[in-house]
Amino acid sequence: MTWDYKYMYVLPLASLLTVLIAYSCIMMVRYCWKRAALKKKIKTKKDECREALERLAAGHQETDGQSQKSKILDLPMEKLLEKLISCEFNAVDVLRAYQQQALEVNTELNCVVEPIKEAEDLANECDNMRNRKDQHKRPLHGLPVSLKECYFLKGYDCTAGMSDYIGKPSEEDAVIVQVLRKQGAIPFVRTNIPQTMMTYECSNPIYGQTLNPHDRTRGPGGSSGGEGCIIGAKGSLLGFGSDIGGSIRIPCHMCGVCGLKPTYRRLSVKGTHELGQGQTLINATVGPMAQDVTSLVIAMKALLCDDMFDLDPTVPPIPFRTEIYEKTHTLKIGYYVFDGYLEAVPACKRAVMDAKTILENQGHKLIPFQVPDVQNVFTELYVRITFGDNVQMLLECLRNDIIDPTISLAVTNWSLPKCVQWLMSWVVSCVYNDDFVGKGIRSTCKTQNVYDWWKLAEKLQEYKKKFLSLWRSLELDALICPGFAFPAVPNGEVFNVLGGVTYTTLYNLLDYPAGTVPVTKVTKEDEAEMKDYPTRTRYERFIKKYFSEGTVGLPLGVQCVGLPYQEELVLRVMKMVENGAPFTVRTD
Ligand SMILES: CCCCCCCCCCCCCCCCCCCCCC(=O)NCCO
């Protein structure tokens, strides 16, 4: 037999092919195995949370029949606190009433992630204090409060909707939680968030999707969507969220509740889960959310205390300045209904005009205000800074995760090579007839080095200066503007209307305190006016589609804004708007 030279390559080629096939098979098996393990991990976590909720519900069936429940639930927070402090109500009864209510609303709305099991012990401790009468020194004595899942709580996982953080319980409570407890509050439930918390659709693969309490086909907003939902559904009187782009204010606007995003560091941010804490030009803040403005004031007064200043010395020791909140002098307030990028829908514009009338009727002077350069500021500063690591950190956290459909398009885009993203961005700009997403994509791949970063920091300072001198030249005390560009968005559709965020991100970028207060609801007339809403860009077309019908009755808020560290003044303006507003959650 003779060797045929034409076969001399066959053996090595066959071997190479076999190795490649074997390698692919191993990788495939590894991937499937990892995926199955991940699904199991998520399922186990889900089951644990569900079982904890079921145990709580079962416990309530055994101890049911408390007569005071409706009396408790009918009281606004201020009145309930009076009764708790005077011992007319037991902390345990109040806790049980709110646990039951939270469980009840949760069955339909999926706003609660898990109950906090230490709540019962804390309530008992409160009731045992009775004889010592110490409760008078504790402004939140016996008050159940809800917490966004991103707050560290000793012994509990803090995932921000990402499975990588399952099974890594926090070692310590967030400073806010420690102070709340010292002031007598009882954290009783943890609430839902979007995966990564960098969007306002409240959905993630671990805890699922939260619905809007006013319309189950729509979302509550986010990222503090679970908080907005539970407070809007009256399952909690006071809760705490976080905000780097609108995450407190958007759900407040969409769920008809009040919330305050303070100046960065007015409240301690120590002990909250944030992506990219090394990014220090635009910072996430934490803040209270509640059914009325008075509750926000009570919460701020309670938190701005020596305990907070001791536990976190980076918080400026400025207690709540009641004198500013209670002042009655006439204010000069700027207003706008359009920020210069995306037209707010007629209902949201009317909400601002209603608030303007309310304030004018109370003797204040309202003057028009024009936001300088908003779209450029959003793409060239906000996106470039908050995604300044070219989205690396976010992708790293999601590397081994199941991606929620609400953010999958963005994540897929960000996972592509930068040059492809760059090309895509131009295509997207043309297809959308809008530079928002295109420029947004380019902005997430632009920052290359420290020089770029310093330039960005400089530009941010320049914009802050420009905005402040405009404010000063008009001699403004405060500003009012749309709570958002539109009301609650149909489930699963937030990505199509992402552009609305310029209304809220501006005040994170400027680091001005801003609060949202409900003013009115969408009317038939507002909806009819949608016929004239522009349809030039893709966002505008989606907005017209989502808000031309099925929106009547949805809540609408306005944002009230002040200069840095003027939270008390912002709350005063919010309170004045609330006083004159035809719609508040409680009286509705
Ligand atoms: C074919 C389409 C490809 C799509 C590619 C998507 C790229 C996305 C463009 C970039 C835009 C960036 C948008 C940023 C939106 C910010 C939203 C802020 C929501 C609230 C966040 C918040 O406050 N979180 C609280 C954290 O504590």
Automatic annotation (TrEMBL):
InterPro entries, alphabetized: Amidase_CS, Amidase_dom, AS_sf, Endocannabinoid_amidase
Residues where substrate binds: 197, 223, 244-247
Domain spans labelled Amidase: 93-571
Protein's recorded name: fatty acid amide hydrolase
Positions of transmembrane segments: 12-33
Gene3D superfamilies: Amidase signature (AS) domain (3.90.1300.10)
Keywords: Hydrolase, Lipid degradation, Lipid metabolism, Membrane, Phosphoprotein, Transmembrane, Transmembrane helix
